[in-house]
Amino acid sequence: MATTSDYYDLLGVPRNASDEQIRSAYRRLARQYHPDVNKADDASERFKQITEAYEILTDPQRRQRYDMFGSTSGGFGDFGIGDLFETFFGGDLRRREPRGPMRGADLRMEIEIDLLDAVQGRERVINVPRLETCERCRGSGAEPGSSISTCATCNGRGEVRQVQQSVFGRFVNVSTCPRCGGSGKTVDKLCAQCRGEGRERKDREISLTIPPGIDDGQQLRVAGEGEAGMRGGPSGDLYVLIRLKEHASFRREQDDLVHLLRVSPAQAALGDEVTVPTIEGGDAKVRVPPGAQHGQMVRLRGKGVPHLGSSGRGDQLVYLDIVVPRALTKEQRRLYTQLKDLEAPPSQTDEDDDLFGRIKDAMGGGGG
Ligand SMILES: [Zn+2]
Ligand SMILES: [Zn+2]
């Protein structure tokens, strides 16, 4: 089975390949994979893929779109493989209808949001450069007031045929009519705004609703806000990929927020009550239990990220980071010395103590 769906890879041609290179690569592969010749299980699927690759890469408009966006409307297998095969290998040429309505392309964007926005959700206006239906001609491509007539080059068929000799004998090459672009119609006067394209490039401000709980790498779909369709086709969709900015005090783990709290050895030994920040502002009290260990976690329920699309939310996980003073005052030195004389050194085999696990947790929990 083919592991690639890239049209250029499928045909084994470089991205700047000429039409002739593409044609000859297709001819070679079509001979190899045509289901009449090749009985392997995946041959017909492969044949379909290379045929689609060929059809798109030899159509300048679709090729350009493919180069820009990596896809074209429609996927593998939604057109008849017969159509193209006939162009090379003869057979009945059915009359093709002029191209009908075409759906606009989907657009993909990426935005970066703050952790707080992901927690609370918000509306955000984003700027989307895209092709829209031309306002002046309403998509017809004709200057208002001018008349529209049947294309004289293709007689309204939307395609032109050239008979050529090839290694396989005579074949008819069918391509989109260069004059009318496949619509089968020409206008006396092209629209001054879009030069007959029917669409024009615009920067559009789109309001995006970011739902509470959204996470890095998730994608929002805004239906109908992609590029305008052609010849009355519907618009594509807009997909917005969410990237989460790093936060100075919190690190997100699913819907929990990891926070590191630095405490002194005395606070850890005696226990203490400390205030910590929360993501939505306001402080919360954390009880450091007496005898707290380095890397130990205290859970603040419900102070994390809301679950996306459902009720409830994650927790804030406060990891205790016991910080030993780097320098001592005279008085501290006296007291630490006293402590040292008083305390037995810690046991080297404490069964409750998963030292490496705790160190790993604490290291990984570096929220600032
Ligand atoms: Zn126009
Ligand atoms: Zn034409």
- The percentage of residues in β strands lies in 25-35%
Instruction: State the low-pLDDT regions, or none.
Output: 73-98
- Which small molecules are bound? zinc ion
**CATH architecture type of the largest domain:** Sandwich
Rg value: 33 Å
Report, as a whole number of angstroms, the end-to-end distance: 48 Å
Strand order in space, largest sheet: 10-11-15-14
- Count every beta strand, where a strand is a DSSP E run of 2 or more residues: 15
User: How many strands, what sense, and barrel or not for the largest sheet?
Assistant: 4 strands, mixed
Provide the CATH topology of the largest domain. Answer: HSP40/DNAj peptide-binding domain
Overall 3D form: elongated
CATH evolutionary superfamily of the largest domain: Urease metallochaperone UreE, N-terminal domain
Order of helices and strands: HHHHHEHEEEEEEEEEEHEEEEHH
What's the CATH C level of the largest domain? Mainly Beta
Number of helices: 9
Q: If you average the pLDDT, what whole number results? A: 83
Q: How many structural domains are formed by the residues? A: 3
Helix coverage percent = 10-25%
The secondary-structure class comes to alpha+beta
Task: Note the quaternary state here.
Answer: single chain
Concise structural overview:
The protein is of the alpha+beta class. It has 3 domains: 7-89, Orthogonal Bundle (Helix Hairpins); 107-147 and 188-244, HSP40/DNAj peptide-binding domain (Sandwich); 251-364, HSP40/DNAj peptide-binding domain (Sandwich), CATH 2.60.260.20.
